[in-house]
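Q: A reviewer asked whether we had any structural model of the full assembly, not just the individual parts. We don't, so I'm hoping you can provide one. Inputs are below.
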Amino acid sequence: MSDILNDQLIESKPVRLEKDGHAVCVVRVRDEIFAIGDTCTHSDASLAEGDVTKTAIECWLHGAEFDLRTGQALTLPATTAVPTYSVIRNADGVTIEI
Ligand code: FES
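A: Here is a predicted structure for the entire assembly that you could use as a starting point for your response.
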């Protein structure tokens, strides 16, 4: 069973998922789907509320950017990466591996 259905994955519109005690931010960019930790490492804001530009997501609170592919913090004020998760594609959506 998928965690998120295909029709919920709108281009560059992050989706927040709670799974096994982890908050995950899932983003579709063209044909790729990325899953990273949803909690900004600067001060606990939800990254799923941020804006996506190409393969980066910007935290809405203070503007730190994270690489959706690697989880790396790209800009201050964040300096620590968020975790990344594997995405398994199913016929009806995706499953995130915690
Ligand atoms: S909480 Fe995300 S940049 Fe400050």
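A: Points you may want to mention in the reply: The chain has a mean pLDDT of 97. Residues 40, 42-43, 45, 59, 61-64, 77-78 surround FE2/S2 (inorganic) cluster (CB under 6 Å).
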